[in-house]
Design goal:
The protein is an alpha/beta fold and 317 residues long. It is 46% helix and 10% strand. The protein has an 8-stranded parallel β-sheet with strand order 7-6-5-4-3-2-1-8. Belongs to the DeoC/FbaB aldolase family. DeoC type 2 subfamily.
Length: 317
Amino acid sequence: MTHSFPRPTGTAFTPDAFETQTVNTPAAERRAASLPARRSVKKDWQAAWLLRAITCIDLTTLAGDDTAGRVQRLCAKARNPVRADLLAALGVEGVTVGAVCVYPTMVPHAVKALAGSGIPVASVATGFPAGLTPLPLRLAEISYAVDQGAAEIDIVITREHVLTGNWAALYDEIAAMRAACGEAHLKAILATGDLKTLTNVYKASMVAMQAGADFIKTSTGKEDVNATLPVSLTMLRALRDYRDRTGQWVGFKPAGGLKTAKDAMNWQILMKEELGTRWLMPDLFRIGASSLLGDIERQLEHHVTGRYSAANRHALA
């Protein structure tokens, strides 16, 4: 992951940056609902936006029955996410996904399969998805994944710290995880579906950034409620406030529940409207997804041929 500006370093724990903030939930919901309704991107422009979305996908497999073979097939798809004939018809080449995300024990298989591609390997860690193993074990899991070759680490926070307002403990935990990552970039999963209120989402976002997160991420994909537009809007407002306060640019990753090309369009519209075009590049925006890519490729085939194919013609891997 290469930034055109310095990697965020975090700040000292600064409660006055967030303690008095509250989020107007009905207003956030209205704003989020208005964006897809107001923006309509069609034809060549839509194809371009969908190709951009592909470059921001963290192509993911986080299943209990993952195998080396499944990871290798996923990595082959990551290298060539769209059929060559479709890319030729669209006049583009060299399209790859943003990263491949796997469990720590699958990292060596992904690193080997992606050698020479420039695609980074991301690993979940820290007792994913619950994050309730002892902190020394969570830090050791980060170190293991980094040692195996992971360039990005998706950590999960202790939700209890948010629900009880123990912001200093949350800061210390994430700061320790950032230190364990070393040169690997840290994506802090807030598991927003467990945090109950948008105000908690805003505060947790600010604390994670103060502690040095390179990205803040909505969900593990395992909660009852995963990425939603109102939650994402709240996190983007926190990103903007933090940038304005510190000058540091932190990335954003929605994950869980993004399954269709329309979802990819809606979140890109949200990013552009709230943060601008620069925040739509893969060093600042990722989409955590497993099945999304197949639908995007299907929509691109429709753009090229005028016909919809069966979904099974665009298998993920």
